[in-house]
UniProtKB/TrEMBL annotation:
Its main location: cytoplasm. Residues 31-245 form the Dienelactone hydrolase domain. It is found in: Cytoplasm, Cytosol. GO terms for molecular function: hydrolase activity. Keywords: Cytoplasm. This is Carboxymethylenebutenolidase homolog. Belongs to the dienelactone hydrolase family. One of its GO terms (cellular component) is cytosol.
Length: 245
């Protein structure tokens, strides 16, 4: 079991036995995992992984879950071949590792994926969700990319974009009350800046008693009482996407 005092404990409760229902594809220079619903749709969601990369079973589970809700869902490798973080790695080296993986340097890959979704999958309305590092990337895209319709940032690392709040698209921010990586003071400051500067619809929601990574890990394996909040977080995410896509 992971130690929750680690810098970024997304690995707790991995669904290591989950293989995924989709397939891996090559999208120009980017590998990606994609899953499509049985019925045709023009709605798609880009899933941005956390530090544990695009192959993490937890993230593929959520990608498939989006598909069961009627969306084309794609999780590209935004590290573009660089190694994902491993729970067995030395956390003392984490900051140096992170310097080579900037959540604001994904625009080229996003453009490639948007083109693929539009030309190869028939997608016309595209949103984005992301976890932790990926949540910060969602924040970046909501500030910059005009082609996305909406975003859900799940425990996105606020410090990466703490001074930026002029969002282009409706954005839902999910945070955990007991997150040891993102303080409630940071969340409060983000809310204040959004209130002052944001011209589009946004929502910031804090889930009681939860810790970092709760929505996309099998948290009920550790604390069954948290299952309600996992399900609520996932439902809220889907409802937001349904509203704006």
């Amino acid at each position: 079991m992971a130690n929750e005092s680690r810098p970024c404990p997304c690995d707790i409760g991995d669904r290591s036995d989950y293989g995924g229902r989709g397939q891996e594809v090559q999208v120009e220079h980017v590998k990606a995992y994609i899953c499509k619903p049985p019925a045709s749709t023009d709605k798609a969601v880009i899933v941005i992984h956390d530090i544990f990369g695009w192959q993490l079973p937890n993230t593929r589970y959520i990608t498939d879950m989006l598909t069961t809700n009627g969306y084309i869902a794609i999780c590209p490798d935004f590290f573009v071949g660089q190694e994902a973080w491993k729970p067995s790695n030395d956390w003392a080296t984490f900051d140096d590792w992170l310097k080579t993986r900037n959540a604001s340097k994904i625009d080229k890959e996003v453009d490639v994926v948007l083109k693929y979704l539009s030309e190869q999958c028939g997608a016309k309305k595209i949103g984005v969700i992301g976890f932790c590092w990926g949540g910060a990337a969602v924040h970046h895209l909501m500030l910059k990319n005009p082609h996305l319709k909406t975003g859900v940032s799940l425990y996105g690392v606020i410090k990466f974009f703490e001074d930026r709040s002029n969002l282009l698209h409706p954005t839902f921010f999910i945070f955990a009350e007991k997150d040891e990586y993102i303080s409630m003071e940071q969340v409060k400051q983000l809310e204040q800046k959004l209130k002052q500067n944001c011209k589009v619809h946004y929502e910031v929601k804090i889930y009681p008693g939860q810790t970092h990574g709760f929505v996309h890990r099998k948290r009920e394996d550790i604390n069954p009482q948290d299952k309600l909040y996992i399900e609520e977080g996932r439902k809220d995410m889907i409802n937001w996407l349904n509203k704006y896509l």
